[in-house]
Specification:
seven-stranded parallel beta sheet, 31 strands, 22 helices, 729 residues, single chain, binds adenosine-5'-diphosphate, binds zinc ion, alpha/beta, six-stranded parallel beta sheet
Amino acid sequence: MTQSNKPIVLRLAAPVPLRRPFDYLAPEDLSPELLRPGIRLRVPFGSREITAVLMQTVDESSVDEKQLRAANSVLDDEPLLGPSIMALCSWAADYYQHPVGEVFSAALPKTLRDGKGLSETHWRLTVRGKGLPEGALSRAPSQAKALALLQNGEQAPASLSEAGVSSAVLRELASKELIERCRGTTKAPNPGLKESGPTLGEEQAQALAAVTLGEFSVHLLQGVTGSGKTEVYLRLIAACLERGDQALVLIPEIGLTPQTVERFEARFKTPVAVLHSGMADGQRFAAWQAAQCGSAGIVMGTRSAIFTPLARPGLIVVDEEHDGSYKQQDGFRYSARDVAVKRAQLEACPVILGSATPSLESLENARRGRYQHHFLRGRQGGGELPMLQTLDLRGLHLNAGISDYLLAAIRDTVETQGRQALLFLNRRGFAPTLQCHDCGWVAGCDHCDARLTVHLRKRCLRCHHCAAQRALPPQCPDCGGRSLLTHGLGTEQTEEFLNTVLRCPVHRVDSDAMRGVDAMQSLLEVAQGEEPCVILGTQMLTKGHHFPAVQLVGVIDADALLYSADFRGEERMAQLVVQVAGRAGREASGGKVLIQTHYPDDPLFESLRDGHFEAITTSLLEKRRSSGLPPFGQLMLLRSDARDERDGEAFLRAVQREAQQYLPKDCQLIGPLPSAMPRRAGRFRWQLWCIAASRRSALAAAHLLVDRAETLKKPRELSWFIDIDPSDV
Ligand code: ADP
Ligand code: ZN
Ligand code: ZN
């Protein structure tokens, strides 16, 4: 008997919430060479047709082949995703235990996920254009120039306009059928510099010299704001472009402003492709394509940009690597910083993690020698580091949270010296609590275990944990009493107070006041304008922005930062204080930081006062070591979310019971425990902790927990997910 021709089985990543690939048969009459991993296919799925990515072809399916359906069509003649991105997505799906199809979706812009093709973005000569005799366009010099440029091959519109060719000229040539649009296949970016940077300082030069392009290594670049980290990135990028490679730069959400992009554009001739979640689909697609075809030498973006394919990846930079916005908190819960390190390994290129306040995870990796650690200890331009001082609040009179001493310092800064003061208060609204003075009623959220925050400006009560909002009641809903008190502090209140006592403008920077990119933009203009003023804001202030005229930084309520249910509370507090402090007197000397606290003797403040961020991290690492928490143990949480108060606990307990006996020996299950806020948006939340002593057992435990959770019967409206390396517990 002759062996029958075995059909080719396609293993696909389909955008559905199931943790497995799907097998299909290849479309009939298709040459097998076209079936390369990374192409997209249209396949029937139920009664729909969906777009899926080919992961691999296999000889035999794990499913009965008679049941396999055939793919309808192939969409790409070339893979959209190269081998390293394919490997990265598969790794991430496994490591984060997330449905593989949804992970692959993160690597494609919506336009391509929807099944559309790559667009023709570039220009090239037509056959007619190529055959044009020399001197034919001598009377139209700009057209002749464009043709001359295109003789060297296709060009991106950006590089043509860079060379002085207007789009009108291109339209004219196109109407003469001398040039036409084509799909970009550029591979090497333009390495040219528009301006050369300053001469590097010794530490900068050392850091630069330690990075070898073309091979994998991880570097932790630690230096305060203004110490010249970005300059090191710029030099590395220049060297990377010089080799014909591209650089990928990740920036925290709030750090990605037009100024940041401009600084890179001012240095390099190559186009900078920018990718972030707030972009329109079309823009995002164009930037993705410029990255994928290699026409953009620099690709810059927030978290999700880490999955953007590059034609010639040569360098990855993660700026402010400690920043919380690198962790995705819903759906596919990954850490872009950690994915960046994995990606650099797969692409065989260096990755630079930069921060003034590195995460304990990265510091521990540096201590173990896995990451090379470089320090930039000074500030560029000789600006001194601000002096840190704690202000003992015990017994002091406070106005909207501000002591007389801090107020005097603010007055001195803005009114006497004509400089700017920056105040940090991590709570927006007017006050976090509204209470009835007659009966004690407190305004709580109906859907969460949380109080409602008073927003006086909008005359409403808002829950900062769900979307609940209602009008400010004129009287107590319980007893009808008319004397309603507010407790606690918020930015609105402090702003109002400062406006009554200061003559200069007070700018409030929080998510209520800063809606949209424009608001941040105009604030940065105020900061650059150097007019005397007070800038008062929340966490938004701490992200890498440059405030040259700030002479005084006040931390209004440091105690609120100290008390957090999360084991990362102290680490965050130290990072925050050092980050806000970094905004002071970057160019001027003698900046000052005042930290208001009732606990000036807390060792944490003592170390901060002495400027010893390292002393703090060393002692925090010690604590983590003794409790086996990250970075010493690997943490994952199985979280449940249900309308019924008891369902989640019962479900997690059942998972725990079933998983316990198969668990690797160095893993420990803790819980189920209620979440820090047990009820949120009307749903009860529980979590089962799993701490593993090694990565290998962590992976095994994650598989086990997910497997058990998937097979166990659960109440219909209960949902669960696994959070690997959670940033919030
Ligand atoms: P960071 O990224 O650590 O905040 P930057 O790289 O932005 O620091 O440097 C702060 C300022 O100092 C910038 O204006 C930069 O142009 C300048 N700068 C950086 N390195 C040097 C250097 N070696 N010589 C002179 N100026 C420098
Ligand atoms: Zn009352
Ligand atoms: Zn709520």
